[in-house]
Amino acid sequence: MFGFLKKRLSGSVKTFAKKASKKELGPNDVDDFFAGIETELMQTNVAVEVIDFLREELKQRLAGAQTKRGQASKAIYQAFEESLLEAVGRKTIDIKSLAAQAKKGGKPVCIVFLGFNGSGKTTSIAKVAKYLLNAGYRPLLAAGDTFRAASIEQLEHHGDRLGAKVIKHEYGSDSAAVIFDAVKYAEKNRREVVLADTAGRAHTDKNLMDELKKIIRVNKPDLKVLVIDSLTGNDAVHQAREFNEAVDVDAVIMAKADINEKGGSILSVCYTIKKPILFLGTGQEYGDLEKFEPEKFVKGLLS
Question: How far from chain centre, in Å, is Cα 59?
């Protein structure tokens, strides 16, 4: 994963650190560094805003850092690591902890999944269901994508394979009502988490976005999770921004991360909407879901 971004960053930072061992670095050196790597970063889907942010962060962090002799390399790497963490964000959300609170007698946790057509929402829901099942919880699936009959059937197929109950209405029904009924069922039957599917929609489609706003208004979910296909490149930023402006998403799942060699979309999405990534989709099987850890991600890019 993210081989191209890692190669460009780690190699360039190593060269920059060597340069620092020979002279004290200043703002112009940081500008020169980014001038040399900016195009390559953009080719890995790192947004211009992120590059500008990292440039200014490094200038500030290196201004007071010891960059002479034996301290140079350590100071450079620490400055890069901290700057990248600021871009990605350090906040995380643990859905197991939320489920644990519900199991102790709290209200069921309602998680609504949303995103663009073909982003991988339904598959991601199944993976999260498996993640919770493995932890001893009993997630309930809500077939809130009533726009396509095939979507209801797909979610039922996953439910059958996982042994997870699916709440559904007829094709064409009110999506908000399906999710509402699922939450009521979960309350009565002591299910800790409701994982609700919604129709895929373009962020530019006003009618469908209004429907999504209704779903959120009626059900008041605990988490609104945006699923983004990490292979969509720079459009991932546009999707994240538009969905966040429409419904104020709480977290993101980046699907198909296992075949994403670029990786810059993670930096760009996190920086753009300032929301944490919950998981990375890492394959086709139910267990192919990796909890996203910001520190691990950043260290991996620089190693």
Answer: 28
User: Residue 126: what pLDDT?
Assistant: 98
Burial 122-141 (b: 16+ CB within 10 A, else e): bbbbbbbbbbbeeeebbbbb
The pLDDT score that the predictor gives to residue 21 is: 66
Q: Which amino acid is at 15?
A: T
User: Rounded to a whole number, what is the largest CA-CA distance in the chain?
Assistant: 70
DSSP state of 70: G
Distance CA 86, CA 102 (A): 32
What does the block give as tokens for 211? 């429907």
Contacts of 204 (CB under 8 A, 6+ apart): 242
CB within 8 Å of 205: residues ≥ 6 apart? none
Spatial contact of 116 and 122, defined as CB atoms under 8 Å apart: no
Q: Which two tokens stand for residue 48?
A: 């211009």
Given a contact cutoff of 8 angstroms between Cβ atoms, the answer to whether 155 and 200 are in contact is: no
- The Cα 8–Cα 37 span in angstroms is 8
Which parts of the chain sit beneath pLDDT 50?
Answer: none
Indicate the domain borders of the chain: 3-88, 95-292
Is 65 in contact with 287 (CB distance < 8 Å)?
no
Indicate the pTM of the whole model: 0.92
What is the CATH class of 3-88? mainly alpha
Sign of the Cα pseudo-torsion (189, 107, 90, 36, in order): positive
CATH 2.40.10.10, applies to 95-292: no
Structure confidence at residue 70 (pLDDT): 58
The number of residues making up the chain comes to: 303
